[in-house]
Amino acid sequence: MVDPNFLLRMGGLVALVAGAFVALECRLAKTQLVDGDVLRAKAERYTKTRRFAEPWRGEIRDRAGVPVAVSMPVKTVYADLSVCASRIEPVSAVLAPHLGLPASAVAGMLRAPLAVAAGSKGGQRARSVVLRRQVSLPEWDALTNALAQATFEFPQSRRTRREEAALARVRRRVVYGEDDQIRVYPFTNLCSTVLGFPRRREGGVGWEGACGVERAFDRQLTGQRGICVSEKDAGGAELPFRRVQNTPSVDGNHVVLTLDTRLQQVAERILGEAVAERRPRSASILAIVPQTGEILVWASWPQPSLLAPGWGPSDIWFNHALGDRLEPGSTFKIVTLAAALNEGIATLNRLLDCEHGHFVYRGVHLRDSHPYGTLTVLVAFMKSSNIAFAKLAIELGPERMYRYITGFGVGQLTGLGLPGETAGWVPPPAEWTDHTKTRAGIGQGVALSQLQLTLIAAAIANDGCLVPPRLVRGVESPAGGIVERFPARPGRQVIRPEVARAVQVAMEGVASAQGTGSRAVLPDHRSLGKTGTAAKSNKEGYIRGAYTAWYVGCFPASRPQVVISVVFDEPSQGYYGGDVCAPVFRELAAAMAPVLGIAPDKGVTVASASRNPGRTR
After folding, report:
1. What does pTM read for this prediction?
2. CATH says 261-310+318-611 is which class?
3. Structural domain spans, the chain
4. Distance of CA 201 to the CA centre of its chain
5. Which listed site, 108, 141, 458, 490, has its alpha carbon 20 to 30 Å from 88?
């Protein structure tokens, strides 16, 4: 007979075993169903490695293929704290000379994360620390050679096997370097505002354009990131035969600009000298080929540093020639003259009463800087009479003036593609007051960018055809193939060609000894030009003593090939465009002519006046 106590004990044991199996099943179920994803992620973290390969950022080149922004390989140097934690002093002594730092500074960098880990809950320790970024390859080679020969206070001779192994481990693993790149500029700071600069992406991996061409063409310059997914051994080394993905990186393409570095260097030197004399708030020069819209020169001041992009005020990278919305002053008389001639309400011979310097229109007063009497339209343009051109604008009326102003591109983006561009501003005809009617024709009450004004002058030089601006000629692959071309875009005829040629005659009169642009006269070439001086305004009205000085011109007059605009915003010494900006035009144009092969044209006659009945000599 079976002992009842035995059965009771056996039943308890079976129940205990069954309960253990149930608990185990519940634990397995929780592990698989509830914690499965977390545990799989942990397992992958310890067994799999994911390595990214950053692409090489493409170059930016000038129109002749000369690099102006390139990338150079560098290393980011890390210290492995698990290796050097017990030998901070000797490690610091070896590393310091090659990092350009005192040994005490390196030791402090190594101790800091260890001290944080010691004071943190759980005592978790950082695995590595960045010692220095942007270490050149020769510096990296010198550092690794020094490590290979250092003893780190191990015995010089008769080392045990354990000491030999420990020394080899320190030499091999105490520091490691990750591939990186930096932007290098063969011409130092040339055209910095236009080029812009790249910055590290969020998270510190990879690069992206922050402003200028670097930002506008970031997609073409960046390339594609590579990735390698594999497994690793217990020591953390990759197992190449266990790779599941290995996609190589694709280097970025090269962007080819329309700028000419030869001319850009000259322009920046000339602008720098003029800025030192005039001390403006800002200043810039633009030079454009009128037939194609290609920008040959784009010089700006203040000039940010490509090597230290974070230096200076917050707006140091603002492109004034592209983003400043300014009143153009008398340079805008180009538009009024073109509109009046194109509409047939005036010829260059028409006489206008300049009211001896004081004109009243419906209670609105307007003055000239000199008390002129009766002048022809041509002479009034040469002398820049406000009254004469206010009368022409009044006669044209708001609707026609608005049509020509917008027809020349004011109030619209140029399509250049750089960030920060202003469209300018012109009030709609319904909002024109009697004050607007007298002021719009002389460049007050409307606003535009320097780029827009340069394009207006380029349209006149191009026989009335407005061609969109162009800063980039194309994109090339790293192998040299053509990825994308950016040809000149089709132009738009704003005024008749014969009218544009009549405006050219008037602009040639400005750039003569008798015109307001007498200081722009070139030694070997005839040129076209227009001066402008505009008072600046804010919400309260015009600001006393604050002016923008303008000059826009083109040469040679016989067949204009280059348009140059010069703007000085709030110059401290002088403020008339003819005094401040015209000499800058003269010096730059004279320097550009031999580089571009533009032959002298003084003594060459302009096209016959018979091509335009309204044109006079």
Report:
1. 0.84
2. alpha beta
3. 78-185, 261-310+318-611
4. 17
5. 141
